[in-house]
Amino acid sequence: MISKCIQAPGAVVMVRPHRFHPNPETASDNAFQRTDSDRTVRQMAEDGYREVTEAARRLEKEGVRVHIFEDRGEKETPDSVFPNNWFSTHPGGHVAVYPMYSPSRRRERRSDILEMLKAEYRVQDIIDYSCLEYDGLFLEGTGAMVLDHIARVAYTARSNRADPIALERFCTHFNFEPMAFDTADPGGRSIYHTNVMMSIATDFAMVGFEIMSDRARREEIRARLREMGRDVIELDNEQISEFAANSIELSAGDKRILAISSRGAASLHKEQKDIIEKSIKIVELSVPTIELAGGSVRCMLAGIHLARRY
């Protein structure tokens, strides 16, 4: 078994939205977004708030350290519930801040979250790429990239939200090998974020290979994942649409867990669950309202790969 903790953070940042709703500004390239005409805007916001609250409590009960921040909606930030897109943290005390594709999402960046990281963890530097927005270059964090912290590979589906120049800069600074690929869903559209089709844990990876356009690249990625001794779980297009890949391995006390939505977990076959449960516990979080915005559990959790201050 590969050493744990490198891939599985033991703490996360979550943002609890007070005015959640699917963002019309991001709908054009996010095929996972949905509307709900049966609920009022207020009902949807209340349900989203409740789902985040309950998810945080469940993770804390399992043993994950959760830093929860409030978003009261003063800046009109409907996607603030997805903080993993605007920052990421890395062993050695490094933090990255990212350039966001949609103007409304740029308002999600918060100095109080960065100050908390510096106060609670050992932060050596913060590398801020947000100025790339002025040049039309975007890279939406661990939504755009799925990072293999063990093999040092940044798997990236090419899209409006993952510019190759920004990706190259990140990989140079943080010592990752970029591995970009083209995608097409059953409707021919590119996947907007890599983390809706790919999840890498310590001992396994879940991947929607059907969505990768180039067969040779697909097999290369499969081989790279297996090089580290991982089981590779292939997800079909239906499972991808149910957010099965939008999950994250976390360290929780003396165990590891897979945080995944109830919807995503329900789409997994028994054989797939058996592979996962060889090494970690599946923890289901019910977030159907949040999923209307086109993201699920992985998007809601910004993992903290930093050493704590004591």
TrEMBL record:
Protein name per its UniProtKB record: Amidinotransferase
Pfam families: DDAH_eukar (PF19420)
NCBIfam families per the UniProt record, alphabetical: citrull_CtlX
PANTHER family (alphabetical): AMIDINOTRANSFERASE
Organism whose genome encodes this protein: Desulfomarina profundi
